[in-house]
Design a protein that fits this description.
Length: 120
């Protein structure tokens, strides 16, 4: 999970590698780091400044970047758009949500420790 340590410059390079160099400034100016990628979804991208709807219609940009983020994080569904009627979230998604926070506890939390804490 090296991406959790990515700086906003690392995220910028990743966005460029996906083929969207025109949107790197949107991520950099909003200080999106590897930890903050968990919050990037189709609804969040317009807040970053990605609002060219003609371009989105042509290339499905929002779905593409959002899908790449979920693939990178190894999660299937964004946790913020779930219904309370849905089954419990996967543990990796909950762990990444914890890791997205700042502070010593989040920085030092390992996946094994997270799983152990959940069992208690």
């Amino acid at each position: 999970m090296a991406f959790l340590q990515w700086s906003h410059q690392d995220v910028q390079r990743w966005i460029e590698s996906l083929g969207y160099p025109q949107y790197t400034a949107c991520f950099t100016e909003n200080h999106i780091t590897g930890k903050k990628l968990i919050y990037v979804n189709c609804r969040y991208l317009p807040r970053l400044g990605i609002t060219d709807f003609e371009h989105m219609k042509q290339s499905f940009l929002l779905q593409s970047i959002s899908a790449h983020v979920r693939e990178l994080l190894a999660i299937s569904d964004p946790p913020w758009s779930r219904s309370i009627a849905d089954p419990p979230r996967d543990e990796m998604g909950m762990f990444l949500e914890m890791k997205s926070r700042t502070g010593d506890r989040a920085d030092s939390l390992s996946y094994a420790q997270f799983l152990n804490d959940r069992k208690k």
